[in-house]
Specification:
Helix 1 crosses helix 6, helix 2 runs antiparallel to helix 5 and helix 4 runs antiparallel to helix 5. The protein is globular, with a radius of gyration of 17 Å. By secondary structure, the protein is mainly α.
């Protein structure tokens, strides 16, 4: 009950704080994308492989990590001077384009390029969101806001995985991944509006 009370108090802060809301929109989009790709993305990679296995996923994660590393360096140097809604919104829209490229292809080289682009585009959502949450809340409220964030991320991921499972049956793997891209792009547009 104490945890749920903190989550509720955190939501009260979130509703009245645009900085915190921007951070949660960006993080929510990442977790929705992760949930959809966890289900449909893995299936898409396995279906496209001539010899299904986990090796390809490992290489795609390496490409994603490389893109994220480069983006992290950029955000901490030259990217500091760019407005955060622009970095977050633009990153989410770019990530959605990477997801579209991933969805419409069956070539591993395209998958790897898409993973790299997604890593480049999505890393700021993790870094800047944490910064925005800390900057946007008073020290005495941070625990409550972070509790609300943790609850939201787990809930969003659970809903995304469930929705992706249903969507994969109804509209197929590629269609489900395209829905994922659309949700991420919509979140990017919303972030740009902050």
């Amino acid at each position: 009950r104490g945890y749920l009370a903190e989550v509720g108090e955190g939501w009260a802060v979130v509703r009245g704080n645009r900085t915190v809301l921007l951070a949660l929109v960006a993080l929510g989009a990442v977790w929705v994308g992760g949930g959809f790709l966890h289900v449909a993305g893995n299936l898409h990679v396995q279906r496209a492989a001539s010899a299904p296995g986990m090796e390809r996923l490992g290489l795609l994660m390496a490409a994603l990590g490389l893109g994220s590393g480069i983006s992290t360096l950029w955000v901490n140097t030259r990217g500091r001077s760019i407005q955060r809604p622009l970095v977050l919104g633009g990153g989410l829209i770019l990530a959605s384009l990477g997801v579209v490229a991933f969805a419409v292809s069956t070539r591993f080289a395209v998958f790897a390029i898409a993973a790299f682009v997604i890593g480049l585009a999505i890393a700021p959502a993790f870094m800047l969101s944490e910064t925005l949450l800390q900057e946007g809340t008073e020290p005495r409220q941070r625990g409550r806001v972070f509790s609300a964030r943790d609850f939201l991320m787990r809930f969003v991921f659970m809903i995304a995985v469930s929705a992706a499972g249903l969507a994969t049956r109804w509209i197929g793997v590629e269609g489900t991944i395209l829905v994922c891209a659309a949700v991420i792009a919509l979140a990017g547009v919303v972030a740009l509006g902050f």
